[in-house]
Amino acid sequence: MRKTIELLAPAGDLARLKTAVRYGADAVYLGGKRFSLRSRASNFEIEDIAEGVRFAREYGAHVHVTVNIIPHEDDFDGLDDYLRQLERIGVHAVIVASPTIVRHAKTVAPKLEVHLSTQMSSTNSQAVRFYQQLGADRVVLARECTMDQIRQICDHSEVPIETFIHGGMCVNYSGRCTLSNAMTLRDANRGGCAQSCRWRYHLYNGAQKLSDDSLLFSMGSKDLMAAAYVNDMIRAGVASLKIEGRMKSAYYIAVVVRAYRKLIDWLLEHPEEDPQPAVLAAQRELMRAENRPACLGFLAGIPGPQDHLYDNAPSRVTHDFLAQVLDYNPDDKQALIEVRNHFEIGETLEAFGPHLENTPFVLETMRDEEGAVVEIANKPLQRCWINTPAVLHPYDLIRRKERKL
Amino acid sequence: MKQINWIAALQQAASLEEMKNSGMTTIRIGVEGCSVRTARCFSPAEAEALVRRVHASGLRCEIVFNRLWMEEELAEMEMKLKQIQAWQPEGIVYMDPAVFMSAERLGLKDRLIYAPDTLMTNSRDIQEMLKLGVGRVVLAAEITLEEILSIARKTDGARLELQIHGRQVMAYSRRKLVSNYLQVIGKTIDDLYDRRELYLIEATRTGKMPILEEAEGTAVYMESTLCSLDQISQLAASGIGHFTFDSLFSCDAELIDARKACGAVLEGADPAVVKEQLKQRWPDLNYGSGYYQQKTNLTKEDAA
Question: Which regions of A127-173 does DSSP assign to beta strands (E)?
């Protein structure tokens, strides 16, 4: 059994990278401006990646960079220089979906680990071995594997295995979908996925309409939430647990990373104890992030009807993110916060942080930086001093259970 | 012009002679338990007999072995591959790298035809796979004619394959997308896995996209049937050695017509006239040109 396991979190920009690391990620993955899926959502210039690497190192964390497009003829320009730059600035690994890029990375930037992307749909240990022989140092399994299959693949593989534990799921084999290409001329495998799978469709059998107009056909999948399988994954020897979501907010990253961090740490520290209470606690906490409806993906078997989205199910929000802590004055036990959402005096709020348990409190005092009383915080990025229930630290967050309107 | 291998998926053994007469040189056979998304899956016994019959007729034969295999199926996969090896097909179409590993052990590597749907989009990746010793690589559907010709210039065209006719797959899922949905709306249909008449229409559009559910998963196809008569002269001159005709959503007779049409164009007939004749004979197939002239590199911002 592997004694440690990596918690790998997404980072859509430098701020979210720092959040992920502060809240307990062992490694973060991000995409640069080129060669990456989700490239349009990325803010990472090479200088930002370098800063991210420096920041992560302070916490003993790694940075992985996605170089995971399925490239066309003209997409290789500048690749070698880019790989060398990533190596030079101390990136730990590149996540790759092309045999050529695997080989190039090993040749031009040999200090980079090469992780084979889930885009390559590796569903068995022989596929893992094939990619190992090609040069991959780690393989990210296809999301289509069950827990039993993951366990067997780990048993039969020499290279470390990475699996997804949380976040959005492609309904199709990753990398084998061109719905977006056909329907929007945006290449799903070069960073342009329009998520056409989540659109609504009529279904016909010949001339006979089968679909129900009130609930049209869709290929959308519920998101993955695999806290219940983290213990099994640790015991199976999985090397890295991956959270999906480079487009997600800093609040989401903080909540999800922290929940899995606490769960993993507890499981590693209490290998003989019943994991169920810790799993339930993690699941309760994960519900406080902004989640779409969730399922177990393929971990328990091929998903059934209950694992699909057929309506326009909105994100399920149980808590509103209200503010981030900037500073704390121990003399008067006041915290300086930066406002992100509307709240007012008298409300019950909750503080939490990388090292702070969920701590509810009633907001009794709030003043602006000039000392004037603030009854309602409603200006984005407004700074206020508030009373606090405990010692807070910069980057702790304040939230509120969602109000029923 | 180099000799071209014209490959047809086969639905009816009775079509063999006519396939040959149309100019097809290879027959591709699906086998139960080994093949997905094929025109027809024959039982292993039928397939073995069919291979013999194909060979006896002077045609080459290739087996579709394109499933993605799960961990517990690996032993079964290798056993099936051995069984197929004994039939002595000229080619074995595969998608899963596990098949490559088994084929290497069995000394079959050079017969492999790597067909991973979307992954072979550039000459460098193709060369990597060819260097590993596979016999042939199938180009992805979503590349333009310009890209295809560029790839053909930079690689050994004799070891390239391109689908030039039939519906092109757009998406492939391990999930049972149709039966899951029907269950939600409380409907059933008989013989779901044999249905070739199911299609989707996006809620704001009109195009019909065939959808196929099988035991191994569900595939969605382009709303048009690829027809390459306008491009066949360039493609044939490019050095690409292998052209495939698929009939998953049509029939042997349509493939035979399409092959004859290609032959006519290569012998000098006007592609527009030949295409019109094909359209008139098969009016429901919605012939189109796939991605030949259509780049798919828009960004979200471009689209907006």
Answer: 138-140, 161-167
Cβ-contact B97, B66 below 8 angstroms: no
Mark whether A328 and A291 lie in a shared domain. no
Size of interface A-B (CB pairs under 8 A): 226
Nearest to A305 among B117, B183, B199 (CB): B183
Question: Are β-strands A348-353 and A397-401 bridged in parallel, bridged antiparallel, or unpaired?
Answer: antiparallel
A383: domain CATH number? 2.40.30.10
d(CA A306, CA B49): 43
In DSSP terms, which residues pair with B219 in a beta bridge?
B172, B212
Length of chain B (residues)? 304
Q: Do the domain assignments include residue A314?
A: no
pLDDT at B2: 72
- Residue spans of the domains in chain B: they are 5-168+222-287
What DSSP letter does each residue of A13-37 carry, written as one string?
Answer: SHHHHHHHHHTT-SEEEEEBSSS-T
The pLDDT of residue A234: 97
Residues B174/B178/B181/B185 CA torsion (nearest 10 deg): -160
Identity of the residue in B71, B182, B183 whose CB atom sits nearest the CB atom of A210: B182
Q: Is the pLDDT of residue A7 over 90?
A: yes
Asked if B223 lies within 8 A of A182 by C-beta distance, the reply is yes
Contacting residues of A for B174, CB less than 8 Å apart: 144, 173, 298, 302
What is the mean predicted confidence (pLDDT) over A51-71?
A: 96
My answer on whether A303 and A328 are in the same domain is: no
Query: Both A29 and A143 in a single domain?
Result: yes
Pick out chain B residues at pLDDT < 70: 1, 299-304
Is the minimum CB–CB distance between B21 and chain A shorter than 8 Å?
A: no
Give the Cα separation of A362 and B82 in Å (integer): 71
Nearest to A229 by CA among A137, A295, A284, A320: A295
Alpha carbon of B255 to those of B61, B141, B242: distances in Å?
16, 19, 15
Residue A148 host element (H or E): helix A147-156
Q: How far is CA B303 from CA A36, A175, A187, A197, in A?
A: 19, 21, 12, 17
In a domain, A83, yes or no: yes
Residues of B in contact with A134 (CB under 8 A): 128
* Total of domains in chain A: 2
User: Best interface-test mutation with B: which of A76, A123, A222 has the largest number of B CBs within 10 A?
Assistant: A123
Nearest CA in chain A to B151: A73
- Of A307, A342, A360, which one is at a domain's C-terminal end? A307
Cβ–Cβ below 8 Å for B71 and A149: yes
A195 close to B (CB below 8 A): no
Q: Is B156 helix (H, G, I), strand (E, B) or coil?
A: coil
Q: Which domain holds residue A351?
A: 319-401
Residue A240's pLDDT is what? 98
Taking the C-alpha atoms of residue B154 and residue A106, their distance in angstroms, rounded to an integer, is 23
**End residue of a domain, out of A280, A307, A334:** A307
A17 with A154, same domain: the answer is: yes
pLDDT one-digit tens code per residue, A312-351: 666 677 899 999 999 999 999 999 999 999 999 999 999 9
A181 and A79 in a common domain: yes
B5-168+222-287, superfamily in CATH? Aldolase class I (3.20.20.70)
* Distance separating alpha carbons of residues A192 and A185, to the nearest angstrom: 9
Q: How many Cα atoms are found within 13 Å in the side-chain-facing hemisphere of B37?
A: 27
How far A164 CA sits from the closest chain B CA (Å)?
Answer: 17
pLDDT given for residue A2 in this prediction: 47
**A170 and A62 both lie in a single domain:** yes
Name, in order, each residue with C-beta under 8 angstroms of B291's C-beta and a sequence gap of 6 or more. Answer: A181, B141, B142, B143, B144
Does a structural domain hold residue A312?
no
Clarify whether residues A392 and A253 are in a common domain.
no
A1 domain residue, yes or no? no
Residues A189 and A290 in one domain: yes
As a whole number of angstroms, the distance between CA B78 and CA B44 comes to: 15
